[in-house]
Amino acid sequence: MIIQKSMKRLKTFSHRISNSPEKTFRIAFDLASEISKSCLIGLTGEMGVGKTVFAKGFAEGLGIKELITSPTFLGISESYSGRFPFVHMDFYKKVVPKNLIEHFQKSKCIVLIEWINNFETVFKEKLNVDISVLIQYLRNKEGLILENEREIIVL
Q1: CA angle at residue 12 from 6 to 17, to 5 degrees?
Q2: CA-to-CA distance for 111 and 42, rounded, in angstroms?
Q3: For the chain, which has fewer Cβ within 10 Å, the N-terminal or C-terminal residue?
Q4: Pairwise CA distance, residues 40 & 19, whole Å
Q5: Where are the chain's structural domains?
Q6: C-alpha angle 13/35/11, rounded to 5°?
Q7: One-letter-per-residue 3-state SS of the chain
Q8: What does the alpha-carbon distance between residue 119 and residue 128 come to, in Å, rounded to a whole number?
Q9: CA separation (Å) from 89 to 8, 23, 63, 128?
Q10: Which CATH architecture has domain 16-154?
Q11: Using CA atoms, how far apart are residues 70 and 115, in angstroms rounded to an integer?
């Protein structure tokens, strides 16, 4: 599933624990520094778990200079100041057309999509994702959320 098959170090990101937004940012930053070609990254996780923080860290790891904010209401934002053009999409409230996603992929962009699972809900099909990132809250023995503990799984 990972497009950078020759990048053996990418496997070190398969499972990480974060206990702060700064740590989540750093994990994403480090992952981005391993990216060597365009790819589609899908982020999944509950509201407030840190998807946008991850996107910000990832963008900075690509060398993006612009301020990265959640494109929830616009659906899409583009940045061109890093090693790769970076397209950040958020499918929480709005899902952009599949042909637009394909356009950015053909343009050799890094495309990062928050709430990628909503694409499947709207279009009843899956996107061909190169890197899937699941961010989820950790829970204690009673099943209660540990507010400052997140598990980040990269597939």
Answers
A1: 150
A2: 8
A3: N
A4: 26
A5: 16-154
A6: 25
A7: CCCCCCCHHHHHHCEEEECCHHHHHHHHHHHHHCCCCCEEEEEECCCCCCHHHHHHHHHHHCCCCCCCCCCCCCCEEEECCCCCCEEEEECCCCCCCHHHHHHHHHCCCEEEEECCHHHHHHHCCCCCCCEEEEEEEEECCCCCEEEEEEEEEEC
A8: 11
A9: 27, 22, 18, 15
A10: 3-Layer(aba) Sandwich (3.40)
A11: 11
Tokens of 4: 């950078």
Predicted structure pTM score = 0.86
Whole-angstrom distance, CA of residue 44 vs CA of residue 55: 12
Residue that the structure tokens 């509201």 belong to: 47
The closest alpha carbon to 114, from 54, 50, 43, belongs to 43
Q: State how beta strands 145-154 and 15-18 pair.
A: antiparallel
Phi, psi for 73 (deg, rounded to 5)? -85, -25
